[in-house]
Amino acid sequence: MKRQGFQFKQFFVEHKDCAMKVGTDSIMLGSWVTCPTCNNDNTPQQFLDIGTGSGLLAIMLAQKSPARTCITGIDIDSDAIAQAKRNMADSPWSEKLDAQQTSLQSFQKREVEQKFPLIISNPPYFNSPISSEEKHTQKRVQARQTSELTHQSLLNNVAQLLADNGMFYCVLPSDVCEAFIEYANTIGLQLIKQLTVFSKPNTPALRELLAFGFEARALCTDSLTIYTENHQYSADYKALCKDYYLNF
């Protein structure tokens, strides 16, 4: 039976058991992230993927990170974690990857002494009541809405888990990112990089890729358009994702 998922250059991500499927948001985010170099003390680096789903972002980090790196993906969905574990085990970097079923709040309380130099998340982004009792619809809405993990709760926990010189990367719809950035600033997380994404030329901004840290730096901003007017992938989008997309 054909597996349901997405073939990348160096790995395959199956997503049939995940509420949120492999999508452009995560592919862009994982491609955009810059991994820190190895520690001078030769201890393994610890990265964290919040809301790992199929494990895609964690696996993308595994591909681009130094050898002595351990990446933990967490999610509250048992089916997603089971899927992530299989995808991680089948990837070329299985020794670097781990998936745990837990909420971010519980994880932070348990790992109170752990500090991560890199945290990544494709977080929930809208408030919406569940309108269907069908299981898959419920799980998809739960994965996307902020009732289980508000943006303030996400940022508060990230601030506790992020290393002093660490970076937190996320992707959000453009129309909700201003409040997110403002709240992050109130708890000491400074916006360091921002990539504004447009679907096509002459259309409203669609997504914002954001990078935060505790250390104040000059803000670096840029923009990206995914498609040309002829609905072909743009040269900039291909350049961003070329290490992952099979046909780029």
From TrEMBL:
UniProt keyword annotations, A-Z: Cytoplasm, Methyltransferase, S-adenosyl-L-methionine, Transferase, tRNA processing
Catalysis: reaction(s): adenosine(37) in tRNA1(Val) + S-adenosyl-L-methionine = N(6)-methyladenosine(37) in tRNA1(Val) + S-adenosyl-L-homocysteine + H(+)
Protein species of origin: Paraglaciecola chathamensis S18K6
Pfam families: MTS (PF05175)
Protein name: tRNA1(Val) (adenine(37)-N6)-methyltransferase
Annotated CDD domains: AdoMet_MTases
Purpose: Specifically methylates the adenine in position 37 of tRNA(1)(Val) (anticodon cmo5UAC).
Subcellular location, record wording: Cytoplasm
Enzyme type, top EC level: transferase
One MF term in the entry's GO annotations: tRNA (adenine-N6)-methyltransferase activity
Family, per entry: Belongs to the methyltransferase superfamily. tRNA (adenine-N(6)-)-methyltransferase family.
Domain Methyltransferase small: 43-128
GO cellular component, one term: cytoplasm
Keyword Signal (UniProt): no
The enzyme's E.C. designation: 2.1.1.223
Gene Ontology biological process terms from the UniProt entry: methylation; tRNA processing
